[in-house]
C-alpha cells in the first residue's frame, strides 16, 4: 500500500516508546519510577467526575454544536474575565483536546508551503500539525541564557517570505519557562508588523510556581490566539477536551472546519468540564498545584545534589530540563540505561528538538514525593556507575 509522503516526515514520539518500555518492566514485576510522561498522577477531581456521571444519567450523549455547548463556552469566557481579560464567549472554540485545536488552527491559517515558527527545544508534535496541512515548521533555537524562550530579535531573524506566524508556549514544554511580559509584547509587535499570527500555547497556565506578571497572552496581545487544554491544570487528560480563543475573523472558518473534521467535541466531557470552574473544583486544582510546587523543589534539589545541572529553574508546568552531560553519556543512552539498569524513566532531549539535544533530559514531577525520593536515590547510584564506566 502506498502511503502519503508526509508520513516520512513524522518521527516517533520517543517518550511514548519510553512509556511502553517502562510498562513492560512493570509487567515483569519491577518498581519503575515514572518521571517521563506529562500527565498528572491525580485522578480527575470529584466535582468534574460527578458532573460527567450526571450528564450520562441525564442522557447528555448526543452531538453538540461544533464549537461546544453554550454553558461551557460561557464558563471559559468567565474564567478569563476573572483574570481581568474580557473574552466574548463567541470567540471560544471548544475542541477535542488541545491537539484538536492545533489541527483546526493549522487548517485555518496555513497553506501548503507556508511556514510557522516554533521553538527548539519545544513540544515535538507541533511540527506534525503543520505537516498535516502541507506546511512546514521553521525552528527558532532557544537556549538557557534566554530562559529557553525567543526574543523579538530571534523572531525577526527567523522570519522569511513563507512564514505566516509563530507558535510559542508559556509555560513551555519541556523547559517549564515563561516568556517575560516585556519580551512577549515585543514579540507580538514584530509579528503584528508582519501581519502574522501569534498562537500562544497556554495549556500549563495555572500550573505556575514563581511570581508571574500575566495570566494569559491576551493581557498583553489581545490579537493573539490562545490554545488551552483541560488536561494539565484541570487534570482531565483522558477526557480529551481543550479550547482555543480566536479573533472574530476566524470564527466562521473554525466553525466550518470543526463541523467537517470533528462534528463536535466529546459531549459528556463538555458537561463535566463546566464543573471544572466550580469553586470546589478550583480549590482542589489549587491544592494540587501546591503539591506540584513541592515536587518541583524536591526533584530540583535532588538532581542537583547528584551533580546534574538544571540551567533554568522552571516557572511552571511540571518538567525540569536537565543537563546530564556530566554523566559522560548522550541523552538517549542515559535514558535507556537509567530505565533498563535502574528502573527510572525519563525523556531524552532528542524528543524536543536538535539544539543540544544530546545533553538534555526532561524529568517530569507528576508522581508523589516518595517516588521522587526513590528516583533521586537511584539516579545517584546510576551516575556513580555511568561516570565510573567513562
Element layout with pairings:
Layout: H1 14-27, E1 33-34, H2 46-57, H3 70-81, E2 92-95, H4 97-109, E3 115-120, H5 126-132, E4 136-141, H6 152-158, E5 163-169, H7 181-193, E6 197-201, E7 225-229, E8 242-245, H8 248-261, H9 267-274, H10 279-305, E9 319-323, H11 331-342, E10 344-345, E11 347-348, E12 360-364, H12 369-389
Parallel strand pairs: 1-10, 3-4, 3-5, 5-6, 6-7
Antiparallel strand pairs: 2-8, 7-8, 9-12, 11-12
Keywords:
390 residues, alpha/beta, Aspartate Aminotransferase, domain 1, Aspartate Aminotransferase, domain 2, 2 domains, seven-stranded mixed sheet, three-stranded antiparallel sheet, 12 helices, globular
Notes on the structure:
This protein has 12 helices and 12 strands. Helix content is 41%, strand content 14%. It is of the alpha/beta class and 390 residues long. It has helices spanning 14-27, 46-57, 70-81, 97-109, 126-132, 152-158, 181-193, 248-261, 267-274, 279-305, 331-342, 369-389; strands spanning 33-34, 92-95, 115-120, 136-141, 163-169, 197-201, 225-229, 242-245, 319-323, 344-345, 347-348, 360-364. The termini are far apart. α10 runs parallel beside α12 (369-389). The protein is globular.
